[in-house]
Design brief:
heterodimer, A: mainly alpha, two-stranded antiparallel sheet, 15 helices, globular, B: alpha+beta, Rossmann fold, Dna Ligase, domain 1, 3 domains, five-stranded mixed beta sheet, four-stranded antiparallel beta sheet, 14 helices, 23% strand
């Protein structure tokens, strides 16, 4: 397996997973907005910061800041090519990468990505409008899952496949911490202090929903949604496939099938330990954002170790 | 499909002057004749869909984006009787033997120049002559392992060699895919006729490449070097790499180490490469030796090749014989090196560096096709009978300024074959590009890629200029009790 191809497979699956999570994030924000009473303000801005595009956004909308309109922010998150993590940028990225490694993946994968690309080209602007947004987002998430399904069902479990798995696992772990981050930093601001707790819980429900986790949370936890329970579920649950713990365990299971690189094992084990030793009760009481940042940094170190170990050759 | 109104003014590959099908095409023409217009349209649509789904594309860069275009595919195959093909194949093998001897001679003793059969002046001014290859003796004495020779048929039915593409000929993937499409669309005909298969090519190409390995006995590591995804033939590079099960690499994937061996960067670490099928022009394969700013190759590749640690196909410098002026000397080369008479005639050529021939060319610009020595893809040509006075004046100046770089050929009444149009079958001009593989023996594809001008009357068949393709059938008539000859 060429280093360049491994690198591309890894990024391909990251981009696909990123596109799906971005779409979900916008979808849940849009639904949450509709649930809120007039006395509660909804802020999109934390979502922009969530995907790491705060600077790009500030440059484009210097004056508006927190007051950017719904359509501004949604267009920025979904369609703006100047936002490196917009839905469109992710799908374009996946497609351009795939163009260069078309011979390594089944033809249907190319068709599925191309279909997503064409759908965004044709319907993107319509998808920004509230009337059609959910339809648009559902179609995108479905399209991304179709790609994941094709990879799982039709790709041989050779070493290339392991890089696809690693990409998906790291991207999901990273996105999960980012979405927690957004939820914790306050998507809604109640005007009345007494309402704070109720709306905070609503916020955590939104976080679970945007990770397609609400139903599974209900089955596993059987308690009403609170910050502590939600954090424990999303960070440490070993059965839910979008929890950070689950993703990291999956990455761990891949490493023995690959040529050994001690630096890679070391950096991954460090994040695994961090997650295992976290105490959701304490995190919920304080601001979990600091901890999420810490995990993201360590995931970044793991990514760098992978790049050093396998992608430079 | 109604053949009653089908008329053409030149030799037609399927239909005789009397309106009857040629013997080798009889079953095909009758079969098509039995299909309604709607059935034909359905099959054409099916063929287009298959081509798109298979991803038979070439890439065009426009408006800052890459656009994948499908090569227009015409439903009606071109048919060649086996008896004629056997002769053509022998002619192609003969050309290839002479061309490889010529290239080796040019980079060796230059005996053909000393014997005054080939003018020294042409060599001195050749843009494809590579100083760095002088003295090299590649394995088996083969320089051009893969050649695509363009053949055309004139109005009287004679098949001529038009040019030999010895640098990085492309199109063979379309030949293979066209056959896949045809089999799906006309399964009945394949059952009842002896249409010779073409799908042996990737295996033959693999064997050709493997034979070059500097580590014989071992399973060689073979890679196809592509300029990358922006190249118009990228589809073909990926297709062939996949069909042969070899690595598709870009320049950055390769490096040459201090031991002069060439390596690929893999997730397991460096892996030695034995043979590279390069689809990058030789001027770009090694920035240490050729274009210093090229990122398409790998620094040190020429050092590795010269040291015999890696084989390159085609060998660098093979393009010296891929020059439309050098082309004119191929019949002389055949006599000189092989002491044989050419089996396949050359399209007659007038060389502008020769004062007498130049005078003739300049006086007959309106009747000739003028070509620069080193352009490919049909660019930079003057088609005399279709030209304006201004274009002719431009070429007059170009030729006078640089006579070595121009040659002219008579405008042939290129043969035609029917294509499907909304108004029924209609004749279009075409050519044929067989692919020739040279190793210890020589292999020629069965038929080749038929390229067809999609516009009525047009003589330009290049895909970059709107040409399309047809499947090419070499038909064995012996079990039908005929030898396939006509006219």
């Amino acid at each position: 397996m060429l280093s360049r191809v491994a690198d591309n497979l890894y990024w391909f699956s990251r981009y696909v997973r990123r596109a799906e999570n971005t779409a979900r994030l916008v979808g849940v924000g849009s639904l949450l907005q509709l649930d809120l009473p007039r006395s509660v303000r909804f802020a999109w801005r934390p979502m922009v910061d969530t995907v790491g595009a705060g600077d790009a956004f500030a440059e484009l909308f210097p004056s508006t800041g927190d007051d950017a309109t719904d359509a501004d922010v949604v267009r920025f998150l979904l369609l703006d090519e100047r936002n490196p993590s917009s839905l469109r940028s992710s799908v374009d990225g996946a497609r351009e990468i795939l163009r260069g490694i078309r011979d390594t993946l089944p033809g249907e994968v190319w068709e599925a990505i191309n279909d997503l690309y064409l759908y965004i080209e044709a319907n993107g602007e319509r998808g920004v409008s509230r009337r059609y947004r959910i339809e648009f987002i559902t179609r995108i998430a479905d399209g991304c899952l179709k790609v994941s399904g094709l990879l799982t069902a039709n790709v041989s479990r050779d070493i290339g496949f392991q890089f696809l798995r690693l990409g998906t696992a790291i991207e999901q772990a990273d996105m999960t911490t980012r979405i927690i981050d957004a939820g914790a930093s306050g998507l809604v601001t109640p005007r009345n202090e007494d309402d704070r707790e109720a709306f905070q819980n609503m916020q955590w429900m939104a976080v679970l929903r945007s990770l397609a986790a609400y139903q599974m949370y209900r089955r596993h936890v059987r308690q009403r949604v609170t910050a502590e329970h939600a954090l424990r579920f999303l960070l440490q649950n070993s059965e839910f496939p979008r929890s950070v713990q689950f993703c990291l365990t999956r990455a761990l299971s891949v490493l023995p099938t690959m040529p050994p690189r001690p630096g890679v094992d070391r950096s991954l084990n460090r994040v695994v330990g961090l997650i295992r030793n976290a105490d959701p009760a304490i995190l919920a009481a304080r601001n979990p954002a600091v901890f999420m940042d810490e995990i993201q940094v360590h995931l970044g170190t793991f990514h760098a170790a992978l790049a050093d170990g396998y992608f430079r050759g | 499909m109604d053949w009653a109104k089908y008329r053409t003014t030149t030799f037609d590959e399927l239909i005789q002057a009397d309106g009857q099908p040629r013997p080798a095409a009889r079953r095909l023409v009758e079969y098509l004749g039995g299909l309604s217009g709607r059935e034909i349209a359905e099959r054409q649509l099916a063929a287009d869909v298959i081509a798109r789904v298979m991803g038979i594309t070439f890439t065009v860069y426009s408006d800052g984006r890459n656009v994948d275009r499908t090569l227009p595919f015409d439903l009606i195959p071109r048919v060649i009787p086996l008896t004629e093909w056997t002769r053509t194949e022998a002619g192609l093998k003969q050309r290839m033997r002479a061309l490889n001897l010529f290239i080796g001679d040019i980079y060796g003793k230059q005996q053909i120049v000393k014997d005054k059969v080939f003018p020294a002046m042409l060599l001195k001014d050749s843009v494809n002559f590579r100083e760095q290859c002088v003295g090299m003796q590649p394995p088996l004495g083969v320089w051009a392992h893969i050649c695509g020779s363009d053949l055309v048929r004139d109005g009287d039915g004679t098949l001529y060699a038009l040019e030999d593409n010895l640098r990085i000929p492309s199109g063979v993937s379309y030949m293979l895919e066209n056959r896949m499409v045809a089999k799906r669309v006309f399964p009945e005909l394949f059952e009842t006729s002896s249409i010779l298969p073409v799908d042996d090519y990737p295996a033959q190409l693999y064997d050709t490449l493997a034979a070059l390995s500097p580590r014989p006995g071992d399973t060689p590591v073979i890679a196809l070097l592509t300029p990358g995804v922006f190249n118009s033939a990228y589809f073909e590079h990926a297709y062939l790499a996949q069909a042969m099960g070899i690595e598709l690499v870009e320049g950055n994937d390769l490096f040459v180490a201090d031991d002069d061996c060439t390596y690929m960067r893999t997730v397991y670490g460096a892996q030695r490469v034995d043979v590279i099928y390069r689809r990058v022009d030789d001027l770009f394969i090694d920035p240490e030796v050729f274009h210093a700013d090229s990122v398409l190759g790998a620094p040190g590749l020429m050092r590795s090749w010269r040291a015999g640690k890696v084989a390159l196909a085609n060998a660098p410098g093979a393009g010296v014989a891929d020059d439309k002026v050098v082309f004119a000397y191929v019949p002389k080369m055949i006599k000189y090196y092989l002491d044989e008479e050419p089996i396949l005639p050359n399209v007659p050529s007038f060389l502008c560096h020769d004062a007498k021939e130049r005078k003739y060319v300049l006086e007959n610009l309106d009747k000739l096709v003028v070509k620069p020595a080193n352009e490919s893809g049909g660019y930079g040509m003057l088609i005399g009978p279709r030209s304006t006075k201004r274009e002719r004046d431009k070429f007059r100046k170009l030729i006078e300024a640089d006579p070595r770089n121009y040659m002219a050929q008579p405008t042939l009444a290129l043969s035609t074959a029917p294509i499907v149009t909304d108004d029924g079958p209609s004749p279009r001009h075409l050519d044929l590009r067989p692919f020739v593989l040279s190793r210890e023996d020589i292999y020629v594809t069965t038929g080749g890629l038929t390229r067809v001008a999609m516009e009525a009357g047009s003589l330009v068949v290049n895909s970059s200029q709107g040409g399309g393709a047809k499947d090419t059938w070499v038909v064995d008539m012996s079990d039908e009790g005929m030898d396939g000859e006509s006219d």
